[in-house]
Amino acid sequence: MKILKLIAISCLLTFGVTAQSKMKQMKWTKYKTLFQIPKNWKVTSSTARSFIAKGDGVVMKIGPYKSRTATAKSTARKAYYSYGVIKKKRKIQEKYLREKKSGLKRYVIFGKGTYAYKKPVSRRNQKVTFGIIGLINPSTVDSLYVRFYWFDKDSTSRKNRKNTWKIANSFKAMK
């Protein structure tokens, strides 16, 4: 019986390490922010104005929003209303995330819409799911928004929703 317990504990510990190792740590020094993205995603742009990563059929963009009076909710909503890549948007879920010692206030919106960007033409007018995160770091005047979108018919749609939650929960303020 003790051997079975040891094997079970060993399996749990191994799985925990494996699950954790599928994400890689990222740092955006200008905005004093740490976060994680899946290891197989590729960073296509990392500048003072934006961070873009792509993988598994999802596009993720982080951008700054300066406002001394912004809240996590108002930042997420501003990102929602100005999201030009997606038309016919509708929200399906929105809520605050617990702080969990992250140092950031976070608000998440999930929704559905239609892809409206020019390229690729073959994807135009296809149904998409999107996620938006509004982030406020109380120790700076900057707030950030994070936008994700992926195509509904892709086989990775469920995985991308889970990854969006993982990424949203990974954001932390740098000390």
- Overall shape: it is globular
CATH superfamily: Mog1/PsbP, alpha/beta/alpha sandwich
How many helical elements? 3
H/E topology pattern: HEEEEEHEEEEHE
Low-pLDDT residue intervals, each spanning 5 or more residues: 1-20
Q: Beta fraction of the residues? A: 35-45%
Broad structural category: alpha+beta
- Radius of gyration equals 18 Å
Task: Write up what this structure looks like.
With 175 residues, this protein is of the alpha+beta class. The protein has one domain (24-173): Protein Transport Mog1p, Chain A (3-Layer(aba) Sandwich), CATH 3.40.1000. The protein contains 3 helices and 10 strands. The strands form 2 sheets. A 7-stranded antiparallel sheet has the order 3-4-5-9-8-7-6. Mean pLDDT is 81; it is low at 1-20.
Layout of secondary structure:
Blueprint: H1 2-21, E1 23-28, E2 33-38, E3 42-46, E4 51-55, E5 58-66, H2 72-81, E6 86-97, E7 105-115, E8 127-136, E9 142-151, H3 157-170, E10 172-173
Antiparallel strand pairs: 1-2, 2-10, 3-4, 4-5, 5-9, 6-7, 7-8, 8-9
